[in-house]
Amino acid sequence: MGKELFAVDVFAMSIKFMVDDMIAVVNQRLTGIIMETDIHWVLTVPAIWSDLAKQFMRHAAIKAGIATERLTIVLEPEAASLYCRHLPVVTTVTDGSSTISEFPTGTKYMVLDAGGGTIDITVQEVQSQYTLREVRAANGGDWGGTMVDKAFENFLIDLVGETVFTTFKHSETEDWLHLSRGFELKKQAAGIQSEGNVTMHFPVSLIDLFETENERKMNIKDAKVVSKYGKTIELKRDKLKISQSTVEKLFEDSIQQIVKHVQKLMRDERMAEVKAILMVGGYSESPLLQHAIKLAFSGIHIVIPQEASSAVLRGALIFGHNPATITERILKYTYGTDLYQPFLEGKHQETKRMMTDAGDCCAGIFGKLIEKELRVTPGETQVKRSFCALSKKQTGMYFNIFVSEESNPTYVDDKGCTKIGTIRIKFEEPDDLPGRTVNLTMLLGGTEIIVELEDEKSGNKVINTAEFWG
């Protein structure tokens, strides 16, 4: 409606609604009262999301009333994959050859998690019966089911014009929601029939609005004739018939983007041993997407669980009970902090020169902590570094944590570098001399990063109090 609200509040209200609803339903079905403190919550996010986005979701969940120590963030394709590892053959639709629950140790397969917004792709390797390791860092894009919804909107705009369509959405919102939901049902079934028409309800309010407000004073049937869809659509009273070929065109851009991206991935030498593609997520239930993937990758097993749309949800429950099911992940970014180094004439930028008690320094150096593409194990400390205070009477130290898409950036303001947060530690008793030591450790193998600072002199520690969100 053109009104603004902070995104974090929208997400927090959505999460709170689901939390309150679940507790109400559980308490209706069980004897005795289930308290919020009895529950550990699992919140799923796309694997291609940045650390900043994951921490944003944690902040939204905390704002919704979930205690941070009772919340686990889980990556969606990992969750879906875990669920499918537990599936018996009879509950999996495949190309007739195999299911991932049968794959032996060492088998590599791709997880294609196709949701409404994002297409999330990871490559995993079977470690044991119920454990997996990540072989290739998550990647993908925003080519999900909502891209098809946008194509449907453009279809309607071509038919009635942008002004009429915008007015309809704002003044007849309930009818617009009914139309959107009707299309959602047709979208899920699109492709089952190869010819004929798809018929759906067309709001009378949209027809009336068009015939009173369009500049050319046309009726809706005339508009149909002059639209680029012409004879491929038919309007009778409140029924809209769309030819199968036109419906398929609405999917075209989305499906082409997905297939092209997977084809590009498959050309990577690391993908040579991939034996199967596991399709999960609501959009994976689309017959058109399934057909396109099977056609493009005819030499690879395509595995689709019966409950593709709820595979993430069910896998999140498994992960919540046993987080150790993922044994290894691949870092998507290089992590670092901003450092001061002795200023070197001719090497460092003059604009970054800074005076300190220890002499002239160059500020803003990207101090690499760990490099992208390395394999990391959940629960293990991957980074341990010591840093010294530069000034006398220093009251504490703070570290800005940066990520970069490059392996070896020079400065923290280089292209591709992003600050994801700041973590601080205070010194109870400042020293008379510079050089006080603070140890920084990082755990990066989980779904979220954990940073710890330790003042070597006092033994005081600060753990993950970083403001790792926007």
Q: What does this protein look like?
A:
The structure is a single chain. By secondary structure, the protein is of the alpha+beta class. Among the domains are: 145-250, no CATH class; 331-463, Substrate Binding Domain Of DNAk, Chain A, domain 1, CATH 2.60.34. 32% of the residues lie in helices and 29% in strands. It has 11 helices and 22 strands. The protein has helices spanning 7-29, 51-63, 76-85, 145-160, 162-171, 173-189, 204-213, 220-226, 244-266, 287-296, 311-321; strands spanning 41-45, 71-75, 92-94, 108-114, 119-126, 132-141, 197-201, 233-236, 239-243, 274-280, 301-305, 326-330, 334-342, 353-356, 359-370, 375-376, 383-388, 396-404, 417-426, 437-443, 450-455, 461-463. It has an 8-stranded mixed sheet with strand order 3-11-10-4-5-6-12-16, with helices on both faces. It has a 5-stranded antiparallel sheet with strand order 14-15-13-18-19, with no helix packed on it. Strand 8 and strand 9 form a beta hairpin. It is globular, with a radius of gyration of 27 Å. The model has no long low-confidence stretch (mean pLDDT 86).
